[in-house]
Amino acid sequence: MVTAAKESAAWRAMPFGSDRAHVDVDFNVPPPYAVTSVLAACLRGPGDARLAEQQAWGWSVASRLQGVLAVARATHPADLDISTRCQRCHETLSFSLPLENFVHAPVSSPLTCEPEGREAFEVRLPTGKDQQRWLESAGANPITMAQELVMNESVLAAWDDDLFAALELKLEQADPYTALNLESECPHCAAAVSQPLNLEGALLQRLQSALTERLRDVHRLARVYHWSEAEILALPSGRRDFYLACVSRESVQ
Known about the structure:
single chain, alpha+beta, two-stranded antiparallel sheet, two-stranded antiparallel ribbon, 45% helix, globular
């Protein structure tokens, strides 16, 4: 069983593609919407209860990422392969990163920022609801987005670049994987290599690939047995794999 962290600690992750509802997840939408759909489709609680989308929107961004990570690990636990190019010698570099390296227990809100020589203030963690609101707001910018997380009116009245920097640092420390850079050294020329990694995007891409593979399975079985999509998706995974193996054996005879 793979579980996610914090809000999702009581929820277990199903492999993506193991339930007929998973094929309805739309990955061609902004990532926060795809994340919410994946969490609602793949996380199960006591009594096999499904996670409500509204509840998933209310989780912190860090916990939502850990939930998607749990689903990805349950679906396809292979390492995450990242490629980049050295800016000095232009050689292609590859990184292989175990998914478990990104497992992290998000901290609880609120956090206390203590900028040097300034009044300490509390800040809450951003949630999926915040992401949704910012996506739908044409006037959203990093400053106003940060200020919406501050819980002290007196600090907002004296807001400046120093307080913004203190808030950014605190959020980065609390959630190290939402904005991530891979630091390494080129084995060909010893140059320092810094590679940004959109972990959420990489995990969603992996799950989208799993969905594509499941739909290909449906296509293969439908061509041979003339079953409907609903009938094929309703098959227990073991029986579906058996029929797929039969089709593969007969295709090479």
